[in-house]
Amino acid sequence: MSKTSTLDKPGLDLVAAVDLGSNSFRLLICQAYITPSGMQLRTIDTLREPVRLAAGLTPGKV
Predict the structure, then answer these.
(1) For the CA atoms of 56, 60, 61, 62, what is the dihedral angle to 10 degrees?
(2) The domain containing residue 33 runs over which residues?
(3) Is residue 2 part of a domain?
(4) What does each of the 62 residues of the chain score in pLDDT, given as a tens digit?
(5) If phi over 0 gives left and psi between -120 and 50 gives alpha, with beta otherwise, what is residue 54?
(6) In which order are the strands placed within the sheet that holds 24-35?
(7) Residue 32 falls within a domain, yes or no?
(8) 37 within domain boundaries
(9) Of 11, 1, 17, 53, which Cα lies nearest the Cα of 35?
(10) According to the model, what pLDDT value does residue 11 have?
């Protein structure tokens, strides 16, 4: 039985990256596809939300 990936079929895979920082949360959604030079990512959407998780933190006070 051969193992195949949907990455063999252009435009079928979505990839998301999440960055949860102390000052902002970021989300990046991309579409993965194969080209002759390798896998490429095309940005579908991005989102940035400011947060203040580190507000009030000082050295020695966690």
Answers:
(1) 100
(2) 14-50
(3) no
(4) 444 455 555 546 899 999 999 889 999 999 998 889 999 999 999 999 999 887 777 777 66
(5) alpha
(6) 13-20, 24-35, 38-50
(7) yes
(8) yes
(9) 11
(10) 47
pLDDT score, position 41: 92
Q: What is the pLDDT of residue 62?
A: 61
The answer to whether residue 8 sits within a structural domain is: no
Tally of structural domains, the chain: 1
CB proximity list for 22: less than 8 A, separation 6 or greater:
51, 53, 54
* CA separation for the pair 62, 28 (Å, rounded): 30
Cα separation of 26 and 28, whole Å? 7
Q: Give ∠ CA 16-28-56 in degrees, rounded to 5.
A: 110
